[in-house]
Design goal:
- The complex is a heterodimer.
- Chain A is mainly beta.
- Chain A contains three helices and five strands; from the N terminus they run H-H-E-E-E-H-E-E.
- Chain A has one domain: OB fold (Dihydrolipoamide Acetyltransferase, E2P).
- In chain A, strand 1 and strand 2 form a beta hairpin.
- The two termini of chain A are about 35 Å apart.
- By secondary structure, chain B is of the alpha+beta class.
- The chains are: A mainly beta, B alpha+beta.
- Chains A and B meet through helix 1, helix 2, strand 1, helix 3 and strand 5 of A and helix 2 and helix 4 of B.
Chain lengths: ~140, ~350
């Protein structure tokens, strides 16, 4: 699923010209770089809230016991602008999450990748980048 | 009227139109990517009381950095170079990060539509948003400014590590104010959206991030008294021809802009240049921080509304998680130390 991409730019100027995106807080202070994980679960609730949305899922542990997890994602505002609603993602949807567990050791994680059973990445239909189209926000 | 006469008049009209069109193109400003677009007749829309109408939804999302990149000496890129920069910027935004690295401990901007390429942004031929000084860089800091920055860092250190005191956590992480709501208004990482509403005697600017609002009186009233300091200062506006000029003072020490003092003065100029674009210019005057004033020019592009709620405090689980994580790490470290000592 994960592709390591080393992008080499011919011109240093071009590289510096690309403004890096920064989060509003340091995710590496909330989640543990040393605890990468992959979770296969079903959605019980999606909180479309700010500053970051949260996906509640249930995951079966190796003993077959159902364990709840909370997964942090991005601000939902742009998704709403692009036509995503609370009904876009139904409760019960199976979802595969690759991410990193919370530093306090509880069942929380940041979702680096959200993938649906058919292999498409959530909200993208499997054709990133620009699956929603450049400038699609503008009518 | 004969057909021949009609035909010659038509040919003449077409010729005049072509010459006029060429003249318009030749005079078009070179800094705007729209310069190459055919000039259309456009009249400034006006509010019922006759002000230029700036109302609507705007974004200042951009691939242009505030300061000119180190290896770039020119003021403008060619159209091709600018397009290449946008393309590479978009590729970089959607590229997967390397597992096990700090940038990878994050959700994917692309999955949430938050990369600039998926929203509205203004193309720009400028190599930096800063237009003055001419080198496109923030001027050097004064000794007083450097001392103040060092003192603020010292005060933070006295309070402990980044997650030891709430005052040490970034204002954005605490949902108090995000970067860039202004003044000066500069695009945050995402949700770089603004709504402008005009009423007789007032202009209101609503910022999507944490729904910060600036109510700007246009009635010539004085700024707030000096002892009242505000997170976004005290703004007063006036019209200079077709341009809205907003002056802001009364900033607070709690929310410095790139090391500024609370005596910073910001002058903003909003000029609607076509249906889809406001040219937003700002000048920073803070002689106790920078050796000279500096100015930037940012295109704001029309986008679709409404602005969506950003009730940051309500959903800020991240703050508690970060503090809990820091305490858990301290506990682990203390246990390690105890183990070593008992050996």
């Amino acid at each position: 699923m994960r592709t390591k991409r080393a992008v080499v730019f011919a011109g240093v100027g071009f590289l510096l010209a690309a403004v890096p995106l920064v989060a509003h807080h340091a995710f590496s202070a909330e989640f543990d770089i040393a605890k990468p994980l992959t979770l296969q679960g079903t959605l019980t609730k999606w909180e479309m809230i700010n500053p970051h949305s949260w996906f509640h899922i249930e995951v079966k542990d190796p003993a077959g016991k159902v364990v709840p997890w909370m997964i942090e994602g991005g601000s939902p505002n742009q998704l709403i602008r692009l036509g995503v609603t609370k009904n876009t993602l139904a409760v019960g949807t199976a979802i595969l999450i690759e991410g990193y567990q919370a530093k306090d050791g509880t069942n929380k994680a940041v979702g680096r990748n959200f993938t649906l059973p058919d292999g498409t990445r959530l909200f993208l239909g499997g054709s990133a980048p620009g699956a929603l189209g450049p400038g699609s926000e503008k009518k | 009227m004969s057909h021949r006469y009609f035909a010659s008049v038509s040919v003449l009209a077409v010729l005049i139109a072509v010459v006029l069109f060429a003249l318009v193109l030749a005079q078009a400003p070179s800094g705007d990517a729209k310069a190459d677009a055919p000039a259309k007749t456009w009249n400034m829309p006006r509010t019922p009381d006759g002000q230029p109408d700036l109302q609507g939804f705007w974004t200042n999302a951009t691939y242009t950095p505030l300061e000119r990149p180190k290896d770039v000496t020119k003021e403008f890129y060619t159209k091709e170079e600018a397009a290449e920069i946008e393309k590479r910027g978009a590729e970089r935004e959607s590229a997967q990060t390397v597992p096990g690295t700090i940038p990878d401990v994050h959700y994917d901007f692309t999955q949430f539509g938050l990369d600039r390429h998926q929203g509205t942004y203004a193309s720009n031929l400028r190599t930096s948003l800063i237009v003055d000084p001419p080198d496109g860089k923030i001027p050097p800091m004064t000794v007083e400014g450097q001392t103040r920055v060092a003192e603020r860092a010292e005060a933070r250190k006295r309070r402990g590590g980044p997650n030891d005191a709430v005052q040490n956590m970034p204002l954005g992480a605490r949902c108090l104010i995000m970067e860039g709501p202004g003044p000066p208004m500069l695009a945050p990482a995402y949700n770089s959206n603004y709504q402008i509403v005009q009423a007789p005697g007032y202009v209101m600017i609503l910022v999507e991030m944490i729904h910060d609002v600036r109510m700007i009186p246009l009635d010539g009233s004085p700024h707030l008294p000096p002892h009242i300091r505000q997170w976004m200062g005290s703004s007063r506006g006036r019209w200079e021809g077709e341009t809205l000029v907003v002056e802001t003072t009364n900033f607070t020490d709690k929310n410095p802009f790139r090391g500024s003092s609370e005596t910073m003065r910001v002058i903003e100029r909003f000029t609607r240049v076509d249906e889809d674009t406001i040219v937003y210019k700002f000048t920073i005057e803070d002689p106790s921080t920078w050796t000279r004033p500096w100015s930037a020019e940012v295109p704001m592009k029309q986008t679709v509304g409404p602005l969506f709620e950003h009730a940051c405090h309500e959903g800020n689980y991240g703050l508690a998680n970060t503090l809990a994580g820091a305490r858990a790490e301290e506990k682990r470290a203390a246990e390690e130390t105890a183990k070593k000592e008992s050996r």
